[in-house]
Amino acid sequence: MPAPVDATIQAGRMAALLPSLPLETRCPPLPLRRYNGFWLPEAVLTELPAIHARLRPRPSDIFLASFPKSGTTWLKALAFATVHRARHPPSGADHPLRRMNPHECVRFMEMDPELRRDASSLLEEFEELDSPRVLGTHLPYCLLPDSIAGEAAGSRIMYVCRNPKDAFVSGLFFVKKVSSAYGAGAGAGAQSLSLEEAFELFCEGRLFAGPQWKHVLQYWEASMRRPKQVLFLEYERMLRDPKATVKKLAEFMGCGFSKEEEEGGVVDEIVKLCSLKELKNMEVNKSGGNQAGVRNEAYFRKGSSGDWRNHLTPEMAARLDKIVEDALQGSGFAFVDDAIM
What we know:
Layout: H1 5-17, E1 23-24, E2 32-35, E3 38-41, H2 42-54, E4 62-66, H3 72-83, H4 96-99, H5 102-105, H6 119-127, E5 134-137, H7 146-149, E6 156-161, H8 164-178, H9 184-192, H10 195-203, H11 212-225, E7 230-234, H12 235-240, H13 242-252, H14 259-263, H15 266-273, H16 276-280, H17 283-287, H18 314-328
Parallel strand pairs: 4-5, 4-6, 6-7
Antiparallel strand pairs: 1-2, 2-3
Helix pairs in contact: 1-2, 13-15
């Protein structure tokens, strides 16, 4: 189906605008441009007009949003297993999560940076999916289509955030693992990037979808304005009580658990199926990979809270805390202190 004229016009405008946007090439694996206050790959920005014009959200749609390496993989697994539990019982030996990586079960709606699929072809595939559809995104809230983020939008968003220090450490390890799939240059750039250099870029917000704290704040503010449409989750609290998290997700998605399901252990089965230990040890996640050459095992590391203490100096941690505190001042939001969890 040909794209509407307005999408074609908007795509042309974006293509003309891109060369004039601030450029960042020091953060592998892809060059970034700053647009509306956030740093994103050119390929993602190029696809925004198509997403805005051609994505047709349904009232039953669930969009899983996050800043990269903030619990995305876990949230995808939990949401998918919960919303599709009638069709795919979590105890079933042939459950999709036992055969596919969570990112295959829940696709990103923008260009998938791992699979190199453009938004137009992805959107056509999404039209064929049965409801309720569950889709992922790393886009900042301000760059979501009005059909999703507008006041009259009927679909729902679940956002997971993570302490910035852990998000930074997890992101650095991930980039070093996957950058070689983007070519020799990206791989070499990632391997030569020191923790100190990467930390400077993170503090400046110069990374995929950065600044991280601004990304989080926009979704938190949206959850305050539209609590029935935007559910804000904190990774650290999810880790503390995953069973309560699954029940909260189900209620928000409109598929709460019955008394019989709870007594029958369905919630516990979902928690077990989607646990890091279980997912990490599945054969598909130990030996599988995607078309771009990114191995599934790259999506699973420690999945813990507070690992930043093993990598950042107290001075680095204090500096990032101050940057975040200043940026959030007056907002009413504060990240969970993992030390008290």
